[in-house]
Amino acid sequence: MFKKRFILLLSLCFISLVACKNDKNSAETSIDPEILKQDSIQLTLNSDDKMKFDQKELVVGEGQMVTLTLHHTGKMSKETMGHNFVLLDQGVNPSKFSQRATQAKDNDYIPESDKIIAHTKLIGGGESTEITFKAPKKGSYDFLCTFPGHYASMRGKFIVQ
Ligand SMILES: [Cu+2]
Q1: 133/40 Cα distance (integer angstroms)
Q2: Which of 2, 32, 113, 141 has its Cβ near the most Cβ atoms within 10 Å?
Q3: In terms of residue numbers, what domain contains 21?
Q4: Same-domain pairing of 70 and 118
């Protein structure tokens, strides 16, 4: 009897472990391929007073019209903790780009460049902004916030599938 219970307990443990693992996997890569086939896609990216984006990877489909909403959930001003979203074309070094951006304070830290696919305006705590653009060809692209010093923690990959 005891042995039987023990086996039952063991298998219960095993089942819940597997269930947990599956949950976690699906949360990390839960991109429904059907969504990437539609004409347009909505993305939401949050930023905060701790100099962080809430996502390190954004995935869209080739040629989709992308509407991206950037929220700043913090309280700090645009002058001290401003955030933007800048999507760079391939072949640009995002670190060097962020260096150049520090010189472009008068233009909300967006330097003159033909390598910018899309960018939002700079926002402060409590603000939101939205942009719409067409997803580029398949591949991996870099996105970042160009506010001085933010590149170190505010960057990620924009994947076009
Ligand atoms: Cu920022």
Answers
A1: 10
A2: 141
A3: 1-30
A4: yes
Cα–ligand 1 centroid distance for 16 (angstroms): 40
Domain count, the chain: 2
Residues 73 and 96: their CA atoms lie apart, in Å, by 28
Question: Quick one: CA dihedral 103, 131, 60, 25, positive or negative?
Answer: positive
pLDDT of the chain, 161 residues: tens digit per residue: 455 554 444 454 444 444 444 444 444 456 888 999 999 999 999 999 999 999 999 999 999 999 999 999 999 999 999 999 999 999 999 999 999 999 999 999 999 999 999 999 999 999 999 999 999 999 999 999 999 999 999 999 999 99
Residues 60 and 89 in one domain: yes
Please give the model's pTM, rounded to 2 decimal places: 0.82
CA 157 to ligand 1 center in whole angstroms: 16
The CA-based diameter of the chain, rounded to the nearest angstrom, is: 78
- Looking at residue 12, its pLDDT comes to 46
Please, are residues 133 and 158 in contact by the beta-carbon 8 Å criterion?
A: no
Residue 156 and residue 105 share a domain: yes
- The verdict on 57 and 114 lying in the same domain is yes
User: In this structure, how many other beta carbons lie within 10 angstroms of the beta carbon of residue 17?
Assistant: 10
- Give residue 146 CA to ligand 1 midpoint distance, Å: 6
